[in-house]
Amino acid sequence: MGNTSFTGEYRYSIDSKGRMNMPAKFRHALDETSEDTFMVTRGNTGNLVAYSLDRWRQVEENLRGLSSMKTRYRNFKQQVTRFATPCKFDGQGRIALPQGLLDFAGIEKEVVIIGIVDEIEIWDPLRLERYEAENQLDEEDIDELADEILG
Q1: Is residue 120 domain-resident?
Q2: Is 147 domain-assigned?
Q3: Nearest alpha carbon to residue 35 among 95, 108, 99
Q4: Structurally, how many domains does the chain consist of?
Q5: Which residues on adjacent β-strands are paired with residue 13?
């Protein structure tokens, strides 16, 4: 697996066919083994999450380690994989998002795309605004996390 890294925030429109532009920076960050494809699925916070195909293969491998004999693990595996959809970008750098995923995330006309190192979040702008208003880190959290991550 390569060193694929996604950072930054981008805003785009969705066309009538459910296609959105994937930032060129993100497309160019994909390893060749990702075959110009992102795996897109439901996120845990009312958004969508896109992974490079390489990263998705790693997610699947981790899921294989969970026993399907335990209901909790089986339900989690199902939740993660059930709506996962391969989305290959076209010659214009767009991916077509399935209507079911758009509906889940409340996305109609515009999207906010956020790179989160090894995954990409795709949000309806108003839903993101509400989420951020309800889930802000305080200064103590920021200091503690910065110290932990940055040393």
Answers
A1: yes
A2: no
A3: 95
A4: 1
A5: 110
